[in-house]
Amino acid sequence: MTARIIRGTEIGPVIRDEIKEETARLLEQHGVVPGLVTIIVGQNPASISYVTAKQKAAKELGFYSLQEDVPDDVTETALLELISTYNSDPRIHGILVQLPLPKHINETKVLYAIDPDKDVDGFHPVNVGRLMIGEAKFYPCTPYGIQQMLMRSGITIDGAEVVVVGRSNIVGKPISMMLVQKAEGANATVTMCHTGTKDLAFHTRRADILIVAAGRPNAITADMVKEGAVVVDVGVNRIGMTPEGKAKLCGDVDFESVKEKASAITPVPGGVGPMTITMLMLNTLRAAQSMTGKI
Predict the structure, then answer these.
(1) What is the pLDDT along the chain (295 residues), one digit of tens a residue?
(2) What is the C-alpha to C-alpha distance for residues 139 and 186, in angstroms, rounded to an integer?
(3) How far apart (Å, rounded) are the C-alpha atoms in residues 57 and 156?
(4) Burial, 5: exposed, middle or buried (Cβ in 10 Å; 0-12, 13-18, 19+)?
(5) Which residues are known catalytic residues?
(6) Measured distance CA(285)–CA(94) in Å, rounded
(7) Residues 211, 232 contacting (CB under 8 angstroms)
(8) Which domains does the chain have, with CATH numbers?
(9) CA-CA distances (angstroms) from residue 250 to 172, 215, 270, 271?
(10) How far is CA 108 from each of CA 118, 125, 238, rounded to the nearest angstrom?
């Protein structure tokens, strides 16, 4: 059996078309355009690339989009004042501060300064708490993308045994909490594992759905996967360069061996990665809709 490949490069554009339609409807019916500001501190090449892609997506969807390029010697006070300005700007519904920040700035303080109702990354403790009690306003973007990929691929989550490998605040913890909720696209039995888990394979072999965000290349091999499982690989690891000078990437799952045992699997690249920016756009749209009373 060779697994069906679930590609974010195919699912993401479908969701973006839906966002574009809803954005046009919001303007027509309420005169509101979703507004997103991205704030980048310094000249980190990876950060610039990420922010450029986010701005491009926002503009293509018809959003009001701003980018704040801040010098890396900005004071923490000045950065907090900038965030405060956008917290009170009615044109802006989503605020994203690109990480990492320079060492002289407290990242936690900066993230906590964002109005929870404009925290489209879903990292503010208020939004984490809302997620915990099943009343989330925004879901963190990568976990949200995973959930949407599973649902839109016809994967049964309700009643499934889900094993998550990884316990980060960005992926492991939120996706575990999302899938355990008594809600559509959830209601699973979830086990969260990590680097300190004894006999990791014992747990992974029980999974109907295995989500891997361990941060280690090829950490999951075929002998660790149940026949017919659905495998979602969140990892992106650079393992060298191609002859053309591009970064050679692999996931946290040994794709070639596991695809012969799983019923469905996400590739790296082209799997979960493309979904993250799409879900950021969806969160921004929902923030704008919420402020109009539409949702």
Answers:
(1) 689 999 999 999 999 999 999 999 999 999 999 999 999 999 888 888 889 999 999 999 999 999 999 999 999 999 999 999 999 999 999 999 999 999 999 999 999 999 999 999 999 999 999 999 999 999 999 999 999 999 999 999 999 999 999 999 999 999 999 999 999 999 999 999 998 999 999 999 999 999 999 999 999 999 999 999 999 999 998 877 777 777 788 899 999 999 999 999 999 999 999 999 999 999 999 999 998 876 6
(2) 13
(3) 30
(4) middle
(5) 54, 98, 121
(6) 9
(7) yes
(8) 30-116 (3.40.50.10860), 141-273 (3.40.50.720)
(9) 19, 11, 11, 11
(10) 16, 10, 27
Tens digits of residue pLDDT in 91-139: 999 999 999 999 999 999 999 999 999 999 999 999 999 999 999 999 9
**Token pair listed for 63:** 């959003």
Q: What is the pTM of this model?
A: 0.94
Strand ordering across the sheet containing 35-41: 64-70, 35-41, 94-97
In angstroms, the CA 184 to CA 290 distance is 20
Q: Are the CB atoms for 291 and 65 separated by under 8 Å?
A: no
Residue 47's alpha-carbon distances to 41, 132, 231, in angstroms, are 9, 29, 29
